[in-house]
Design brief:
2 copies of one chain form a homodimer. By secondary structure, chain A is mainly α. Chain A has one domain. Chain A is built from 4 helices and no strands. The longest helix of chain A is centred in the middle third of the chain and has 35 residues. Chain A starts with 10 loop residues before the first helix and ends with a helix. Chains A, B: It is a multi-pass membrane protein.
Chain lengths: 152, 152
Protein backbone atom coordinates (compact mmCIF):
# COMPACT_ATOMS: atom_id res chain seq x y z
CA UNK A 1 0.00 0.00 0.00
CA UNK A 2 1.34 3.47 -0.84
CA UNK A 3 1.58 6.02 1.91
CA UNK A 4 -0.86 8.91 1.62
CA UNK A 5 0.24 12.19 3.25
CA UNK A 6 -2.29 12.97 5.98
CA UNK A 7 -3.27 9.36 6.65
CA UNK A 8 -2.43 7.58 9.90
CA UNK A 9 1.28 7.33 10.73
CA UNK A 10 2.58 10.11 8.46
CA UNK A 11 4.13 13.42 9.44
CA UNK A 12 1.27 15.31 7.74
CA UNK A 13 -1.14 13.49 10.05
CA UNK A 14 1.02 14.52 13.00
CA UNK A 15 0.71 18.16 11.90
CA UNK A 16 -3.07 17.85 11.52
CA UNK A 17 -3.38 16.38 15.03
CA UNK A 18 -1.18 19.14 16.45
CA UNK A 19 -3.42 21.73 14.78
CA UNK A 20 -6.50 20.04 16.26
CA UNK A 21 -5.01 20.13 19.75
CA UNK A 22 -4.03 23.81 19.39
CA UNK A 23 -7.40 24.96 18.02
CA UNK A 24 -9.52 22.89 20.43
CA UNK A 25 -7.51 24.11 23.41
CA UNK A 26 -7.73 27.70 22.18
CA UNK A 27 -11.50 27.36 21.76
CA UNK A 28 -11.84 25.90 25.26
CA UNK A 29 -9.65 28.62 26.80
CA UNK A 30 -11.40 31.53 25.11
CA UNK A 31 -14.76 30.15 26.27
CA UNK A 32 -13.74 29.19 29.82
CA UNK A 33 -11.81 32.31 30.82
CA UNK A 34 -14.91 33.58 32.60
CA UNK A 35 -17.71 31.60 34.22
CA UNK A 36 -20.47 33.35 32.22
CA UNK A 37 -20.66 30.58 29.64
CA UNK A 38 -22.64 28.39 32.07
CA UNK A 39 -25.75 30.50 31.44
CA UNK A 40 -26.02 29.35 27.83
CA UNK A 41 -26.66 25.72 26.86
CA UNK A 42 -24.78 25.93 23.58
CA UNK A 43 -21.66 27.41 25.19
CA UNK A 44 -21.65 24.57 27.74
CA UNK A 45 -22.08 22.13 24.84
CA UNK A 46 -19.05 23.66 23.09
CA UNK A 47 -16.97 23.31 26.25
CA UNK A 48 -18.04 19.65 26.65
CA UNK A 49 -17.26 18.79 23.03
CA UNK A 50 -13.87 20.50 23.13
CA UNK A 51 -13.19 18.65 26.38
CA UNK A 52 -13.77 15.41 24.46
CA UNK A 53 -11.89 16.48 21.31
CA UNK A 54 -8.66 17.38 23.12
CA UNK A 55 -7.91 13.92 24.68
CA UNK A 56 -8.88 12.20 21.38
CA UNK A 57 -6.47 14.39 19.39
CA UNK A 58 -3.70 14.05 21.99
CA UNK A 59 -3.97 10.24 21.95
CA UNK A 60 -3.74 10.07 18.17
CA UNK A 61 -0.97 12.69 18.17
CA UNK A 62 1.10 10.48 20.48
CA UNK A 63 0.44 7.37 18.39
CA UNK A 64 1.41 9.27 15.21
CA UNK A 65 4.53 10.68 16.88
CA UNK A 66 5.55 7.16 17.92
CA UNK A 67 4.95 5.91 14.40
CA UNK A 68 6.92 8.75 12.76
CA UNK A 69 9.88 9.14 15.13
CA UNK A 70 10.41 5.79 16.86
CA UNK A 71 9.00 2.82 15.04
CA UNK A 72 6.65 2.58 12.07
CA UNK A 73 3.45 0.89 13.29
CA UNK A 74 1.69 -1.66 11.05
CA UNK A 75 -1.48 -0.19 9.53
CA UNK A 76 -4.42 -2.46 10.31
CA UNK A 77 -7.81 -2.13 8.71
CA UNK A 78 -9.64 -2.31 12.05
CA UNK A 79 -7.48 0.43 13.55
CA UNK A 80 -8.07 2.77 10.61
CA UNK A 81 -11.81 2.06 10.75
CA UNK A 82 -11.91 3.03 14.44
CA UNK A 83 -9.92 6.21 13.71
CA UNK A 84 -12.21 7.14 10.80
CA UNK A 85 -15.37 6.59 12.86
CA UNK A 86 -13.94 8.44 15.87
CA UNK A 87 -12.85 11.36 13.72
CA UNK A 88 -16.27 11.41 12.08
CA UNK A 89 -18.08 11.55 15.43
CA UNK A 90 -15.67 14.22 16.70
CA UNK A 91 -16.07 16.32 13.57
CA UNK A 92 -19.89 16.06 13.74
CA UNK A 93 -19.84 17.10 17.38
CA UNK A 94 -17.42 20.00 16.85
CA UNK A 95 -19.38 21.32 13.88
CA UNK A 96 -22.62 21.11 15.85
CA UNK A 97 -21.05 22.86 18.84
CA UNK A 98 -19.39 25.55 16.71
CA UNK A 99 -22.60 26.26 14.79
CA UNK A 100 -24.80 26.49 17.85
CA UNK A 101 -22.29 28.72 19.65
CA UNK A 102 -21.94 30.94 16.58
CA UNK A 103 -25.69 31.35 16.17
CA UNK A 104 -26.18 32.19 19.85
CA UNK A 105 -23.35 34.75 19.69
CA UNK A 106 -24.95 36.28 16.60
CA UNK A 107 -28.26 36.59 18.45
CA UNK A 108 -26.63 38.04 21.59
CA UNK A 109 -24.72 40.51 19.43
CA UNK A 110 -27.96 41.74 17.88
CA UNK A 111 -29.68 41.92 21.28
CA UNK A 112 -27.30 44.70 22.33
CA UNK A 113 -24.43 45.45 24.64
CA UNK A 114 -26.29 44.62 27.85
CA UNK A 115 -26.41 40.92 26.90
CA UNK A 116 -22.96 40.75 25.42
CA UNK A 117 -20.25 43.31 26.29
CA UNK A 118 -17.90 43.93 23.32
CA UNK A 119 -14.87 42.31 24.96
CA UNK A 120 -16.69 39.16 26.10
CA UNK A 121 -18.56 38.82 22.81
CA UNK A 122 -15.30 39.05 20.85
CA UNK A 123 -13.87 36.26 22.95
CA UNK A 124 -16.91 34.06 22.37
CA UNK A 125 -16.60 34.72 18.64
CA UNK A 126 -12.92 33.74 18.69
CA UNK A 127 -13.85 30.56 20.55
CA UNK A 128 -16.46 29.62 17.92
CA UNK A 129 -13.97 30.40 15.10
CA UNK A 130 -11.36 28.13 16.73
CA UNK A 131 -13.98 25.39 17.03
CA UNK A 132 -14.69 25.72 13.28
CA UNK A 133 -10.96 25.39 12.50
CA UNK A 134 -10.72 22.36 14.77
CA UNK A 135 -13.71 20.83 12.92
CA UNK A 136 -12.04 21.48 9.57
CA UNK A 137 -8.79 19.73 10.59
CA UNK A 138 -10.74 16.86 12.12
CA UNK A 139 -12.68 16.46 8.86
CA UNK A 140 -9.40 16.48 6.90
CA UNK A 141 -7.98 13.69 9.10
CA UNK A 142 -11.20 11.71 8.69
CA UNK A 143 -11.19 12.03 4.90
CA UNK A 144 -7.49 11.13 4.49
CA UNK A 145 -7.91 7.98 6.58
CA UNK A 146 -11.19 7.21 4.81
CA UNK A 147 -9.35 7.39 1.49
CA UNK A 148 -6.81 4.69 2.37
CA UNK A 149 -9.45 2.38 3.90
CA UNK A 150 -10.53 0.66 0.64
CA UNK A 151 -6.92 -0.18 -0.27
CA UNK A 152 -6.25 -2.03 3.03
CA UNK B 1 -20.44 -8.40 -3.88
CA UNK B 2 -23.18 -9.13 -1.36
CA UNK B 3 -26.06 -6.73 -1.09
CA UNK B 4 -26.18 -4.77 2.15
CA UNK B 5 -29.65 -3.56 3.23
CA UNK B 6 -29.54 0.25 3.26
CA UNK B 7 -26.84 0.60 0.61
CA UNK B 8 -27.51 2.07 -2.83
CA UNK B 9 -30.13 0.25 -4.91
CA UNK B 10 -31.89 -1.66 -2.11
CA UNK B 11 -35.43 -1.22 -0.82
CA UNK B 12 -34.08 -0.22 2.62
CA UNK B 13 -32.21 2.63 0.93
CA UNK B 14 -35.45 3.63 -0.79
CA UNK B 15 -37.15 3.80 2.63
CA UNK B 16 -34.29 5.89 4.07
CA UNK B 17 -34.52 8.35 1.17
CA UNK B 18 -38.28 8.58 1.56
CA UNK B 19 -37.81 9.36 5.25
CA UNK B 20 -35.26 12.04 4.40
CA UNK B 21 -37.67 13.68 1.94
CA UNK B 22 -40.55 13.59 4.47
CA UNK B 23 -38.52 14.98 7.38
CA UNK B 24 -36.72 17.67 5.35
CA UNK B 25 -39.99 18.84 3.82
CA UNK B 26 -41.69 18.84 7.23
CA UNK B 27 -38.80 20.88 8.68
CA UNK B 28 -39.01 23.36 5.80
CA UNK B 29 -42.80 23.68 6.09
CA UNK B 30 -42.86 24.18 9.86
CA UNK B 31 -40.21 26.90 9.51
CA UNK B 32 -41.65 28.64 6.44
CA UNK B 33 -45.32 28.81 7.42
CA UNK B 34 -44.79 32.39 8.56
CA UNK B 35 -42.28 34.92 7.30
CA UNK B 36 -40.81 35.62 10.76
CA UNK B 37 -37.90 33.24 10.25
CA UNK B 38 -36.13 35.82 8.05
CA UNK B 39 -35.17 37.82 11.15
CA UNK B 40 -32.86 35.07 12.43
CA UNK B 41 -29.74 34.00 10.55
CA UNK B 42 -29.85 30.42 11.79
CA UNK B 43 -33.47 29.92 10.76
CA UNK B 44 -32.63 31.18 7.26
CA UNK B 45 -29.65 28.80 7.23
CA UNK B 46 -31.97 25.89 8.16
CA UNK B 47 -34.34 26.81 5.33
CA UNK B 48 -31.44 27.01 2.83
CA UNK B 49 -30.00 23.66 3.91
CA UNK B 50 -33.37 21.92 3.79
CA UNK B 51 -33.91 23.48 0.35
CA UNK B 52 -30.68 21.74 -0.74
CA UNK B 53 -31.40 18.44 1.05
CA UNK B 54 -34.81 17.91 -0.54
CA UNK B 55 -33.69 17.82 -4.22
CA UNK B 56 -30.67 15.65 -3.29
CA UNK B 57 -32.90 13.10 -1.52
CA UNK B 58 -35.52 13.19 -4.28
CA UNK B 59 -32.88 12.49 -6.97
CA UNK B 60 -31.46 9.51 -5.06
CA UNK B 61 -34.98 8.31 -4.23
CA UNK B 62 -35.82 8.21 -7.94
CA UNK B 63 -32.57 6.40 -8.81
CA UNK B 64 -33.20 3.87 -6.02
CA UNK B 65 -36.82 3.40 -7.12
CA UNK B 66 -35.65 2.75 -10.70
CA UNK B 67 -33.09 0.26 -9.42
CA UNK B 68 -35.57 -1.57 -7.19
CA UNK B 69 -38.70 -1.65 -9.35
CA UNK B 70 -37.57 -1.44 -12.99
CA UNK B 71 -34.01 -2.54 -13.60
CA UNK B 72 -31.15 -3.25 -11.22
CA UNK B 73 -28.43 -0.67 -11.90
CA UNK B 74 -24.77 -1.74 -11.84
CA UNK B 75 -23.02 -0.48 -8.68
CA UNK B 76 -19.92 1.48 -9.67
CA UNK B 77 -17.27 2.54 -7.21
CA UNK B 78 -17.24 6.13 -8.50
CA UNK B 79 -21.01 6.47 -8.15
CA UNK B 80 -20.98 5.17 -4.56
CA UNK B 81 -18.10 7.51 -3.72
CA UNK B 82 -20.09 10.50 -5.02
CA UNK B 83 -23.16 9.39 -3.05
CA UNK B 84 -21.12 8.90 0.15
CA UNK B 85 -19.47 12.33 -0.18
CA UNK B 86 -22.77 14.04 -1.05
CA UNK B 87 -24.53 12.39 1.88
CA UNK B 88 -21.67 13.37 4.15
CA UNK B 89 -21.86 17.03 3.09
CA UNK B 90 -25.65 17.00 3.43
CA UNK B 91 -25.52 15.41 6.86
CA UNK B 92 -22.91 17.91 8.08
CA UNK B 93 -25.01 20.78 6.79
CA UNK B 94 -28.26 19.48 8.28
CA UNK B 95 -26.67 18.82 11.66
CA UNK B 96 -25.15 22.31 11.67
CA UNK B 97 -28.48 23.89 10.70
CA UNK B 98 -30.47 21.83 13.20
CA UNK B 99 -28.07 22.64 16.03
CA UNK B 100 -27.94 26.34 15.36
CA UNK B 101 -31.73 26.55 15.04
CA UNK B 102 -32.20 24.52 18.23
CA UNK B 103 -29.82 26.71 20.23
CA UNK B 104 -31.46 29.91 19.00
CA UNK B 105 -34.93 28.54 19.88
CA UNK B 106 -33.65 27.62 23.33
CA UNK B 107 -32.37 31.16 23.81
CA UNK B 108 -35.60 32.74 22.52
CA UNK B 109 -37.62 30.47 24.80
CA UNK B 110 -35.67 31.67 27.81
CA UNK B 111 -35.95 35.30 26.74
CA UNK B 112 -39.71 35.15 27.26
CA UNK B 113 -43.00 35.19 25.42
CA UNK B 114 -42.48 38.55 23.75
CA UNK B 115 -39.67 37.14 21.61
CA UNK B 116 -41.26 33.81 20.94
CA UNK B 117 -45.03 33.25 21.29
CA UNK B 118 -45.81 29.70 22.48
CA UNK B 119 -47.44 28.61 19.20
CA UNK B 120 -44.66 29.95 16.96
CA UNK B 121 -41.93 28.65 19.27
CA UNK B 122 -43.46 25.16 19.26
CA UNK B 123 -43.44 25.19 15.47
CA UNK B 124 -39.78 26.24 15.36
CA UNK B 125 -38.95 23.43 17.81
CA UNK B 126 -40.78 20.90 15.63
CA UNK B 127 -38.86 22.18 12.62
CA UNK B 128 -35.50 21.71 14.39
CA UNK B 129 -36.55 18.21 15.56
CA UNK B 130 -37.44 17.25 11.98
CA UNK B 131 -34.07 18.56 10.81
CA UNK B 132 -32.36 16.33 13.40
CA UNK B 133 -34.31 13.30 12.16
CA UNK B 134 -33.41 14.17 8.57
CA UNK B 135 -29.73 14.39 9.63
CA UNK B 136 -29.96 10.99 11.30
CA UNK B 137 -31.36 9.28 8.20
CA UNK B 138 -28.83 11.04 6.00
CA UNK B 139 -26.02 9.80 8.26
CA UNK B 140 -27.46 6.25 8.09
CA UNK B 141 -27.45 6.36 4.27
CA UNK B 142 -23.90 7.70 4.29
CA UNK B 143 -22.64 4.96 6.62
CA UNK B 144 -24.35 2.10 4.76
CA UNK B 145 -22.86 3.21 1.45
CA UNK B 146 -19.51 3.86 3.12
CA UNK B 147 -19.57 0.28 4.39
CA UNK B 148 -19.85 -1.30 0.93
CA UNK B 149 -17.22 1.02 -0.59
CA UNK B 150 -14.13 -1.06 0.36
CA UNK B 151 -15.64 -4.23 -1.15
CA UNK B 152 -16.17 -2.64 -4.60
Amino acid sequence: MEELPGAFGTSASLTLRLGQIVFSSASLCFMCLDVGFYSYTSFSFLVTVMGLAIPWSITLFMVDAYSVFIQCLPIQKRLILIIVLGDMVMSYLSLAAACSAASVIDLLHEAGKSHCPAKLCGRYQLSAAMAFLSWFLSLASCLFNFWILPSL
